[in-house]
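During the second half of the funding period, the structural biology subgroup turned its attention to how the target accommodates small molecules. The most pressing case was calcium ion, which had performed well in the primary screen but for which no bound structure existed. We therefore specified the complex as follows and requested a full 3D prediction, including the ligand pose.
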Amino acid sequence: KRGGGKSKLAFTPIDPVDALVDDFTVPDGYSWRTVIRWGDPLFRNSPGFDANNQTAAAQELQFGYNCDYTDIIEIPGSKGRRAVLFANHEYTNENIMFPPEMPAEEVRATARAAHGLSVVELVRKNKNAPWTYVVGGRLNRRFLMETPYELTGPAAGTEFVKTIDDPSGRTILGTLGNCAGGTTPWGTILSGEENFNGYFVTPGTSDADRRYGLTPSPTGRRWEIDDPRFDTRNAGYANEANRFGYIVEVDPFDPTSTPKKHSMLGRFKHEGANVIVADDGRVVAYSGDDERFDYLYKFVSRNKVRKGNTPADRRANMNLLSEGSLYVARFQGNSVPEIDGTGSLPTDGAFDGVGEWLPLIINNRSAVPGMTTAEVAVFTRLAADKVGPTKMDRAEDVEPNLHTGKVYVACTNNTNRGVGSNTPVDEANPRTRNRDGHVVEITENGGDQTSTRFTWNLLLVCGDPSTNASTYFGGYPADKVSPISCPDNLAFDSAGNLWISTDGQPGTIGYCDGLFRVTLEGRERGRVDQFLAVPRDGETCGPIIHDDEQNVFVAVQHPGEEGSWGAHTSLFPDYVPEWSAPKRGEGALPRPSVIQVFPDERKRQGDDKPGRG
Ligand code: FEO
Ligand code: CA
Ligand code: CA
Ligand code: CA
């Protein structure tokens, strides 16, 4: 057990798990159990999960589907025994969720109710023990497609976001495509609206429609049949799609609060957003646009964070993301990239160079000729196109390391890079047909998070080094790392190690997706150790690393996605621990879940069933 610097979380890396294995694999000496599953009841009046008879009315009172971002925040004064769990619900897999005889209208309504967000209280017997969720917890909340969100920033109240249902242009119902996210220093949750375009039928004729992938084709879920706002050709709804694609902010400690959508951070396929406080007290948020050949963004607030935790301080801090400046990144290499198929480093021995944050909005004013501030906020991709940023290989999670201020960007893959007339390689995106992805490390000039200049290098060029010569692991010997492909979500442990969860390994290196620790500092920089693997067809999300307690949490998204009703390829998670055996009728189908991993000896400290609020 080495690597990981000073972290208390010691483990022997697991071997990669074959892509067809339906199991949740953890290191020797560790156990796992669910925190909460799709369909688990949240409120005292919630029906229990019933695989064969799910309804929209039941689902509205139950935990949603396909979590991506999660965090667990201890409730102050609880001595580590109570916490609040946040989880978002990115999308649904109707083919494996519902029996084929279920009426289409009921499928649509139930799947729609499985979207959104959840906040759930957790309890445990003592600090470090496994958590149990609380049915009827005071903070428990479901955010549905009918939940109102306050639109803030330059887009609020403008002609671009008004509809027949919201003539003020300030109140939006629902959130879509929530993917990664971040927890702010003031204790709120940010969540990114990513693939919102897939929920709308539009004319598809404008530059904006084309740039955002909005088309006249029927959507996959056909919500437009039941609700006219999902077809923007309907009278009064021309702007409905302009009301999605933002960073959402939620206060998990106030179940009556109105969540926000912050247009100052721009509108695109936000993977997520992560905040760091600059030395002068302003806050800086980083966010990637997860689309092939799209961009990396940074927001700098106008106002400074308040350190207190009074209601007035929290209110002020929840306005920080409404005013400020928005930038988009341009990367400049300093040598010729040569990795394309050869495995060699660039001519100067490193993928690295300098970069610049190009302004789109400066102090609430548009910096883009010919576009108003509101236009930049709503049509951010069109604005960015005008200033010449670097087209990236799908920037997923972007997260600053609070120990060093360095910023990490997971570029998950881009198989179109350099193919045909597509954009060729550059030093920051050096691989033609980039199947395995890479991780960029950014250092802001002078350690000033608000700087408009930075230096950068590639920390990882991912893949299986045993079969792929074009991999790089921060200079660490490639034959001593766990193979890793398609980096997606990022997190840090208390010792400042980077943790990466993956999405797509089965299709690239033939292994189940998983969670990996990357040592960043010292002689083992670039060392990659696999901690866990998720079941067949699943994606690893979350993750939460409470290494000081030796607890790790992940959300297993879309297990068994490739299967169908009656031919499920995964039965996760109810097939496993004997001390949480499924009830009759349960366990016959995969259920996306939040999972906790902990040392074996704590196995008996957890409860077998939910607590009562
Ligand atoms: Fe929802 Fe970019 O992953
Ligand atoms: Ca270089
Ligand atoms: Ca993702
Ligand atoms: Ca993903």
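Two results from this model are relevant to the next phase. Residues 30-194+245-612 form one domain. The CA atoms of residues 4 and 109 lie 46 Å apart.
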